[in-house]
Amino acid sequence: MHPADYFIVVIYLISIVILGIVLQRKASEGIESYFLGNRNLPWWVLGASGMASNTDIAGTMLITALIYALGTKGFFIEIRGGIVLVMAFFMIFMGKWNRRAKVMTLSEW
Q1: Distances (CA, A) of 103 to 39, 59, 61, 99
Q2: Can you give the pLDDT at residue 58?
Q3: Biggest CA-to-CA distance, the chain
């Protein structure tokens, strides 16, 4: 490797260590600070985070199965009335509901 490459790698590693130290200090303020951002996150971030945690391989497999069984119209069935509408609804409202309930996770709610 060229000396400039070594320099870039060293700068990258130093910046990662500094970022880790800064985030560790912020995380050690308390459990609410670590998991909830001191409850200062906007409602839409909470909703998006909750719905992203519910997205798994099952949804992908469902869409794949519908496309295999029905062709391209299987994809439109999924978009028109499948999980997309449910997740959009929950993303809009769950963030506000979780904020009002003062819970840390969706399972506590």
Answers
A1: 10, 27, 31, 7
A2: 67
A3: 57
End-to-end CA distance of the chain: 54
pTM score above 0.85 = no
Q: Which residues neighbour 64 within 8 Å (Cβ) at sequence distance 6 or greater? A: none
The pLDDT of residue 67 is above 70 = yes
- Report the distance separating Cα 109 and Cα 107, nearest Å: 5
Contact (Cβ atoms closer than 8 angstroms) between residue 62 and residue 78: yes
Indicate the SS3 state at residue 71: coil
Which is it for the CA torsion 74, 76, 78, 81, positive or negative?
negative
d(CA 66, CA 47): 27
- Higher pLDDT pick, 58 / 31: 31
Q: Counting beta carbons within 10 angstroms of the beta carbon of residue 75, is it exposed (0 to 12), middle (13 to 18) or buried (19 or more)?
A: middle
